[in-house]
Amino acid sequence: MIDKFGIDHESSKNEHDNKSAISALWNEKDNAEEDEPVDNRGGGTNFGGPKKSLKAFLISVIIILSVLVIALVSYIIYSLKGDVSNLNGGSKNSNLSSSEHVDEFGGESAIKFESKPQDTNEYTAESIYEVLAPSVVGVVVYDSSSDIISAPKSEGSGVVINERGYIVTNSHVVGNSKQSSVKIVFHDGEEVSGKVIGYDTKTDIAVIKVDKTGLKQATFGNSDEAKVGSSVLALGNPLGLDFAGSLTKGIISAVNRSKNGSPKSLVKYIQTDTAINPGNSGGPLINMYGQVIGINCEKIALPHYEGMGFAIPSNTVKSVVDDIIAKGYVTGRVRLGLIGKVVSNYQSQMYNVPIGIIVSEISSDSNLKQAGIQIGDIITKINDINITDLDTFYAELESYSPGSTVKLTVYRVSANRISANTFETDVVLLEDKGETQESASRPIFE
Q1: Has residue 359 got a pLDDT over 50?
Q2: In the chain, count of helices (H) and strands (E)?
Q3: For residues 117 and 158, is the Cβ–Cβ distance under 8 A?
Q4: Burial of 14 from C-beta contacts in 10 A (0-12 / 13-18 / 19+)
């Protein structure tokens, strides 16, 4: 049996065993006929006579052979179904549990996980590229008010997750917005318009829908099986469509990595030394069985840093995508109703203020103003938990549901910046339906 990557996994063992079993049965039949006692009594119905015994024995043999033939045919059909499933990008049933939603997929996930092959033979980069390249697309994003000659504001990569037109990419690629105009460029050069149906800035995942069916969906694997040292590939469009379909290779450098070293990071990333550049964002990180185990999202691009890229694990991608397709947003998330920016340790020392989140905007639907919070205040704690970075901030919020009340510790500098005071106040959390907290682009102090 030749699989989608050109590897022959067929074994002749089952066929040999079946032939041996059939041969043994026929030998048993011959011996039984030779040992059958002869009844010469004659007359009447002879239930124990040789003819009747032989007939009963033959019927038994035929029944046993029929069962064997049915089992053999069932095995062949099952194997053929497995091959067709692999060629179509994965098994029909996920081997991982997740919350199900009633959507156009009938409650099933758009992303299907495929188990690793039973053998240990990894595939070649050439064969993996041939199979997965049609499932990786270019994502070109324009401002919603742009005209026909406007240049795109970003270019990235995406992965086809379902033949019905669903594509996953990074939230930052689509500008953390549903309003951006999106163009999808397929491997063969075909261009179609796409619509952002939802995004999640906390995990940096977005889902795009195109009005096109019969797409070649990618095969996804279980990111929990990722091992440090394993070879991986990255496929995407570094620096944009001019370098579309670029394939790079490296290893998994680490798993369960957190941003900024925070142990409370919402996403535990896969770290890789595979070459990833701007434009690779939203593209797949692939194991050597041709399975997508992560969505590439960023790299450390600083002097003296080399080969430190990060991918969102496929298990995280699956849970977020399921919610976005079903609801348009990730359910159960909460927000305070503000836009702020983290005060770093350096800024804390320079301006003589505590580390925390400085408030730059307050949403009209929140009760922050009623709770006494103003623009320019620095939130230093949530329920006595020190806020040292956004990961800690989000992680603490994740433990609550919409409508919950939390206690904030707030630091306020006087108008003349000579004196300051600290106070505590209770605020009610809102449901986050995509209106996630984003860092303000303005400086810490205006």
Answers
A1: yes
A2: 6, 20
A3: no
A4: middle
Q: Give the closest residue to 282 by CA, choosing from 321, 329, 336, 255.
A: 321
DSSP state of 182: E
Annotated catalytic residues are 172, 204, 281
**Domain regions of the chain by residue span:** 13-36+48-87, 125-327, 334-431
> What is d(CA 81, CA 301) in angstroms, rounded to the nearest whole number?
45
* Contact present, 144 and 181 (Cβ < 8 Å): yes
Architecture, CATH, for domain 334-431 = Roll (2.30)
- SS3 of residue 109 by DSSP: coil
Would you place residue 262 in the very low, low, confident or very high pLDDT band (cuts 50, 70, 90)? low
DSSP string across 335-373:
E-SEEEEEE-HHHHHHHT--SEEEEEEE-TTSSTTTTT-
DSSP label at residue 49: S
The single-letter DSSP state of residue 123 is: P
Residue pointed to by tokens 């919603």: 144
Q: What pTM did the predictor assign?
A: 0.68
What pairs with residue 343 in β-bridges? 356
Closest CA to 199 of 324, 315, 312, 323: 324
- At residue 206, the 3 state secondary structure works out as strand
> Residue 361's beta-bridge partner residues?
339
- Looking at the predicted structure, is the pLDDT value of residue 30 above 90? no
| Domain 125-327, CATH | 2.40.10.120
Q: Report the alpha-carbon angle 127-219-319, nearest 5.
A: 150
